[in-house]
Amino acid sequence: MRFTNLDMDALRSFVAGIEAGSFALAADRLGRSTSAVSAQLKKLEDQTGTKLVQRAGRGLALTEGGEVFLSYARRLLNLNDEAVSAIHGPELEGWVRLGIQEDFGETVLPQVLGRFARAHPKVRIEGRIGRNVELREKVAAGHLDLALAWDDGTATRADRIATLPLCWLGPADEEPLWQMNAGEPLPLAALEAPCILRNLACGYLDQAGIAWRVAFVSPSLAGLWAATAAGLGIALRTPVGRPSSVRVLDAAEHNLPSLPTLGLSLLSSATPHNQISAHLATIIRQTLWGSLPEAWVLAA
Fold first, then answer.
1. Helix/strand/coil for 85
2. Residue 110 confidence (pLDDT)
3. Where in the numbering of this chain does the HTH lysR-type domain appear (predicted)?
4. Which terminus of the chain is more solvent-facing, meaning fewer CB atoms within 10 Å of its CB: N or C?
């Protein structure tokens, strides 16, 4: 069998074009002409023997083959960049402080720490799993260099990294104990205040005229999942990190308010920009792009 060596520049142009929504925007970001980027896409389609993109109105859409290929292209680029960084990794020494939401502690954090440690073995990472308010305060005070936090409405466009759907959650194996027609207030399972998602749940229920009570309060996400799985209360979260013991409830079916999306931001401290933080931020973004559904992530 004859193997094909894919062109890394063409891969980068392909991924940049999809994330930007057009190859004209990708050309600007890559510092190339639109015709050069289009030629790279044509080269990639010739190498794979598959049409990867198609016109969709004024924009671009992936073909079925392109959807499959995109995840591989991102992984190839990540590995390429990681290999190049690893060669120069020993030149980077020092330490970096990262804060991250508990929702991403078991999914994103291990990948990020593993990739960064392999690329920069002489850099010490101080990690903190924290609540949204705490993470934002520590970034503002310069006690954290980077933090992955929910958008409270103050994030800039450069900070935003993804937009995740909010959903009502209940036990997976049974119907929630609460019923709208029973006349009882809706029991909520929530994290300790202050909590942005707790505030959103109460606010949307108030707007809908639905009486509620806080039935279970937990200092940790593990406790919240356990209470929700046991049917002690309904929770409002994103689907990230949701255990199999908890399911997404159909809002209309349970007479619950429909919910919008919630932004996810990568915050940086106001301290002078440094190469270590920049490398870690790149790995965080790439890891999220590879692990979250494409519809949730925002172009860089």
1. helix
2. 85
3. 6-63
4. N
Give the CATH number of the domain where residue 115 resides.
3.40.190.10
Tell me, yes or no, whether 194 and 220 share the same domain.
yes
CA distance 20 to 14: 10
Q: Is 199 helix (H, G, I), strand (E, B) or coil?
A: helix
179, HSE (Cβ side, Cα atoms, 13 Å): 4
Q: Which amino acid is at 238?
A: T
Diameter of the chain measured on Cα atoms:
69
b/e per residue, 39-65, with b = 16+ CB within 10 A? ebbebbbeebeeebbeeeeeebebeee
3 part of a folded domain: no
pLDDT band at 48 (very low <50, low <70, confident <90, very high): confident
- Global pTM value: 0.67
Residue 85 CB neighbours (<10 A)? 18
**How far is 201 from 190, CA to CA, in rounded Å?**
9
Host domain of residue 135: 94-163+262-296
Q: How many CA atoms lie within 13 A of 154 on its CB side?
A: 9
Q: Mean pLDDT over residues 114-121, rounded?
A: 81
How much is the pLDDT for 108? 83
Q: Report residue 34 as tokens.
A: 């639109």
Amino acid at 143: H
How many residues appear in the chain?
300
